Amino acid sequence: MKTRILLVIFGLISHFCVSAQYIDWSNSDPRYIGNGNEIPSKTYADQPYVIVCDDGSWLCILTTSSGIEHAYMNNIIATRSYDKGRTWTEPVNVEPPGVPQSSWAVPLKVPGGRIYVFYNYNKYGFEGIEGVMSSPFMYKYSDDNGKTWSEKRFEVPIRTTQIDRENYTHGKHQFFWSIDKPVVTDNAAYITFTKILRKDPKQPEFFKRSEGFILRSKNILYDNNPEKIEWVTLPEGDSGIWNPEFGKVQSEHNMVILNNGDLYVVYRTIDGSPAYSISSDDGKTFSKPKYMTYANGQRIGNPRACPKIFKTANRKYLFWFHNNFRKNSYNGRNPVWISGGIEERGDIIWSQPEIVLYDNDPAILGMSYPDFIEVDGRLWITETQKNAARVHEINTNIIEEMWNQGKVTDLTVDGLIMNSDEKMLSQKEINFPQIPDLASGGSFTMEFWMTANILKTGQQLFSTIGPEHKGMQVSLQKDNTIEIEISDGEIRETDLRQNRIFTSDQNTIAEKELHHVVFIIDGAAKIATIVVDGILSDGDVETRDYGWGRIYPYLGKLNDTNKCVLNKEFDGTIHLMKVYNRALKTSEAISNYNAGLKAN
Length: 600
Description:
The protein is mainly beta. The chain folds into two domains: 31-403, Neuraminidase (6 Propeller); 416-599, Jelly Rolls (Sandwich). 5% of the residues lie in helices and 38% in strands. Strands 29, 31, 36, 37, 38, 39 and 41 form a seven-stranded antiparallel β-sheet that branches. A hairpin with a 6-residue loop joins strand 18 and strand 19 (275-279). The longest helix is centred in the last third of the chain and has 10 residues, at 586-595. It is elongated, with a radius of gyration of 26 Å. It starts with a strand and ends in a 5-residue tail after the last helix.
């Protein structure tokens, strides 16, 4: 389909700065957000969560409005798909639009097939954001796969805790919301949610503190009388799931049940990373939350955006996040990254991530509030950009490769267009292949093994740039980093250094050590990533929000003399050099590293 990308100046972050122009090109990449199938809504759409009904149809519940996010017109709607998300029926109202508004629906299917929808219901007429975050927590149900809904609504009692008593109503009213699709086990149903401290209604900042809690019901699994459903608020005591060391605002808690029966809760912080906590006593108590990390110990980055966890049918895990360390920022939600998790010794070990969805407009807020749908080994993700919700099928090969990171040592050959060994490279000049046109969505990967005897800032390793000033050059830079600069020979008024020069994280290169370096230039997503010695450069929470970079969208052909010249003055050795005419996945780069130089 034709993609028309509007690129605008995102002045607060030079990382995103591009000129306001249009570019047209055909983008069939399934990761591109515009290639998803839209779910019907009004002008606002949020939390498009899907239940696979007993008849095989999909039921999507979402919050919508003809206004903005916390408009008084908010209401809950339901729509169905009989073709796995390609088309959808005309929505029906679970709750009608208007006062009192209903918001933030989370659906639950119990073993008998009944479907419940839980949501905030502004029964007491609060205005603005207070209204959509206010009690009570209500629910309706459907016994016909979402075609019709109970006329009567029912209230879930939420135990009053310290954070409620500290708000300006002194606990008479509670403020909270849930983004968690409920979890069902053989013993109970669980809904994770976040309570909010509202100290002064006259203050513009709504979140003074937030903590996570869980609602548990056992008899909802078998009792069809909604008047008799019983609920317990967890954890026990007066405090929820939060760590005061991570700042006062800790929100959007969501949960899976580990294979050993423990409860595993993740949530967003304002410190640039998601956090998690575990309960080994069915929610009565929780461990002190920790920042989430990859298997290699690196801290995972995520702005003030929803991080979402999902458990697959094979008892493994997926994690949706945004891979940057922006603190207390609602921005930075584009692209979306996903990590694969394996349970080990009562915890989840997370792989290094892959880009799963992106929008070519870097100035948009981005995608959020996803749901995962798994049917017969296939996987789909829903998401919202607030003005539209979509569903996307995901390549499960990407998922499998992440689960196998560290175990696979296969050398990637798909797309390999150059493979030069140390003997060839000793000539200091080799033939270099044609690189796909980046402006038209082409991609390439530059991979090499190298040893530097001395780390000298600015020392060039090699270059393909000729008289037309097209090509790439790689050099060592300060703080023990390595850098690639790409150029199409065009001279532009705007300084686009940050969109054509990409540098690894600090201290990734050491003297007299063998290193494996992979520069992945993804011309479809317009994202450049760097993997050194099997580790993706993902930034630093203190000094570098982003480890990846955005490619200038009009950067085009890099072909000049089709020669690669190695710097004779470089005090070191390039042992092997490869070029691919596509963007390798992170997992492929790691696998090539794990194979080792001798395997090439």
